[in-house]
Amino acid sequence: MIIIRSFDVNKPGTSIDDLQGGVVGGSVLEGVLQVGMDIELRPGHMFKDAEDNVRFTPIRSRVVSLMAENNPLLYAVPGGLIAVGLMIDPSITRNDRMVGNVLGVEGHLPDIFV
Questions:
Q1: Residue 114 has pLDDT above 80, yes or no
Q2: How far apart, in whole angstroms, are the C-alpha atoms of residue 83 and residue 93?
Q3: By percentage, how much of the chain surpasses pLDDT 70?
Q4: What fold does the segment set 2-105 form as a domain?
């Protein structure tokens, strides 16, 4: 799945007990996404090493929800736009920060780091 949107669904002032993880949106291109799957986002988190070189680390998470329009799903197949709720800090997905990343089954994505 190529990510075309990412956002934080939590409203300002939400209590800690009610916080939800980040959400990414896009279209499944191949395979099936299911609630409970372990996934990764690549290239993921960008940082600079000691020599000031840009490096990337994949972000690993679990799918906690799938939505199409206002309909909750148990699985998603290719086609249509899908919102994927993840178990990651919502600050990572806020303001479309994950646009352009690729989401896939953990361990099955190519080495996408540039």
A1: no
A2: 12
A3: 98
A4: Elongation Factor Tu (Ef-tu); domain 3 (2.40.30)
